[in-house]
Amino acid sequence: MLATYAQIARRSAAVTAAAAAVMVALSAAIAGGKGAIGALLGTALVAVFFAVSVVAVGAAAKVSPQIMMLTAMLTYIVKILVLLFFVVRFANTTAFSPRMFGLTAIVCILAWSASQVTWSMRLKMAYVEPDGDR
Question: Which are the contacts of 70, defined by CB distance < 8 A and separation ≥ 6?
């Protein structure tokens, strides 16, 4: 299970990195230097969020599937609250483009989530383990 999850996380990170590179370039073209800074900050925030999730869920997976699910749900809720804090805190900043920050964060989150679903669906894993007694 952990090896499979690590493979999915690596592939999802690669897809998200490609999407982030495109968003940084687009943000620089649309909003200049402040747009690029906003996009880089959005990318960094998403990278930290998902790195924390991968580590936390990976550690919880060693304990039990129930703890793994609880950890995934709790990290998701905490990430939403922290993102809300950052959006409110930097809504009127002039140091970078908050619009490009938010747009890049959304695109990276969607890229990560979509690639996780896609890679998970491609894996051939047994849903139940066959009973050897029959």
Answer: 60
Cβ-proximal residues to 56 (8 Å cutoff; 6+ apart), any chain = 71, 72, 75
Reduce the DSSP state of residue 39 to 3 states and report it. helix
The Cα–Cα gap between 68 and 7 comes to 17
Whole-angstrom Cα Rg for the chain: 18
Tell me the whole-structure pTM to 2 decimals.
0.80
As given in the structure block, the two tokens for residue 115 are 């690639």
- Name residue 94's amino acid: T
Contacts of 45 (CB under 8 A, 6+ apart): 83, 86, 105
Give the number of other Cβ atoms within 10 Å of residue 59's Cβ.
Answer: 13
Location of structure tokens 């809504």: 91
Q: For 22-77, what is each residue's pLDDT tens digit? A: 999 999 999 999 999 999 999 999 999 988 988 898 888 888 888 988 998 999 89
CA distance 120 to 112: 12
